[in-house]
Design brief:
Layout lengths: L12 E3 L11 E5 L4 E9 L5 E7 L4 E7 L5 E4 L13 E2 L5 E7 L2 E7 L5 E4 L7 E7 L5 E6 L6 E5 L5 E4 L8 E6 L5 E6 L5 E6 L5 E4 L7 E7 L5 E6 L5 E6 L5 E4 L6 E7 L5 E6 L5 E6 L5 E4 L7 E6 L5 E6 L3 E7 L1
Antiparallel strand pairs: 1-2, 2-29, 3-4, 4-5, 5-6, 7-8, 8-9, 9-10, 11-12, 12-13, 13-14, 15-16, 16-17, 17-18, 19-20, 20-21, 21-22, 23-24, 24-25, 25-26, 27-28, 28-29
Amino acid sequence: MIRNHAIALCTALTASAAMAGATEGATIVVFDPQGSGGTYPTHISEDGSITGSWFDVAAQVTEGFIRAPDGTIKPFAKGDSNPKETTGSGINVKTEVTGYVREHGGLWGYIRTPGGKIRSFQADNARRFTYPVGINKFSAIAGISANRNGQDRGFIRTKDGTITLFDAPGDADGTDPTGINNDGSIVGSYADGGGAAHGFLRTSDGTITTFDAAKGAILTVAEGVNDAGSATGFFFDSGEVYHGFVRIADGTVTIFDPPGSLATYAAAINDNGAIIGSFIGGDNVEHGFVRSASGVIKAFDPPGSKGTLPRSINRNGDITGTFYNGAYHGFIRKT
């Protein structure tokens, strides 16, 4: 069921980040599967394995990939010689991968075993659209179950295949999980039907806590959660400006922006409290940033980047994401 291509790196570049003085001691490696027309990493595991999606120019289809810590890239898709659209959205320490595959008239979630076997599933057979967003070390998968009208529900699928659907309290227009930690806590956002969106945290016992990053926030999107229960994301304030935030387990929220930011989008947080994301600078270009647990923020870009979108950070501080320089490429930033 798995389509394995020749293992290759199309590009491998190690260099200091382009923004002078921003990333002392860090190196950035740029990578693409061979024949890629666009590479989009989504998650990095604790051992440095990366998953994501890429566009296979020869097959004219989006496929998944795994990049091993040694830089070896193994593309995969369901369908062997006739690959189906397949994405990678999460990878755990066992190199199990989750994402979705387009088949049977809908989008199906899947789990890919370390041996390469893909097992598809639907969170709700009546809805037919399943979008996994992450997988933890216990093989629990979180994601979104949607129908053709875009009415989203959250779900969690345990290792034994048991699926639980859920909605945030006050949800009137969709519940959208974005991440899961090793405790089984899930974060995301939901729409209240009145034009506002709010964040939520669902703990492993099913308790859901809703929150806004600031008083008067029009939109709050929680994007990631670490094993301590700290969540990060971004919000849109009453002045119509995006800011980053971190919410620790006791509910305390800290708002932050990189210096000179016109808009800040935090994307992920690791178990040491480091946060990554992107911001729009005074040059109207999107740059990457990493914020330490103490609040120190450093900006960074791969060389030649015209737009940097970090997506995931592991416990070691390794960061992966996408950047644009006329084409979309993957990168890993190592300290």
